[in-house]
């Protein structure tokens, strides 16, 4: 009987701990904008505009659409992505096409991200995004 009571108490505490951790996850849903610093062998150094629209978040997972300027094409490109946020505020975002972003939610509530992919289309990007 004592074991059953202890197991029930442990299960209840685990539920409260999980709820407390979930409450600490920031709500990232919305539109985030920034001016990235970019370098790639084909494009050299450049800046532009990056917009992340996070359309849905469930717990630590989210998804959305990324829109950025393509200077050589003189038009914007849109890609879908999926992401996660750790309990410490670290972000991992995987593009559905290619590439990924790593970053953090800053103390001021901004998203600081680094993006990259390798190969013929190698590129490295740093950006700080502010919620609109």
Describe the structure.
There is one protein chain. This protein has one domain: Quinohemoprotein amine dehydrogenase alpha subunit, domain 2 (Lipocalin), CATH 2.40.128. Helices cover 17% and strands 54% of the residues. It has one helix at 2-23, and strands at 30-34, 37-40, 44-47, 50-58, 61-70, 75-85, 90-95, 100-105, 111-117, 123-131. The protein has an 8-stranded antiparallel beta barrel. Strand 8 (100-105) and strand 9 form a beta hairpin. The longest helix has 22 residues, at 2-23. Mean pLDDT is 85; it is low at 4-10 and 15-22.
User: Which range does the strand content fall in?
Assistant: over 45%
First CA to last CA: what distance?
55 Å
Number of domains: 1
Shape descriptor: globular
Question: How many helical elements?
Answer: 1
- Extract low-pLDDT stretches: 4-10, 15-22
Strand pairing plus helix content: what structural class?
alpha+beta
Order of helices and strands: HEEEEEEEEEE
CATH superfamily: Quinohemoprotein amine dehydrogenase alpha subunit, domain 2
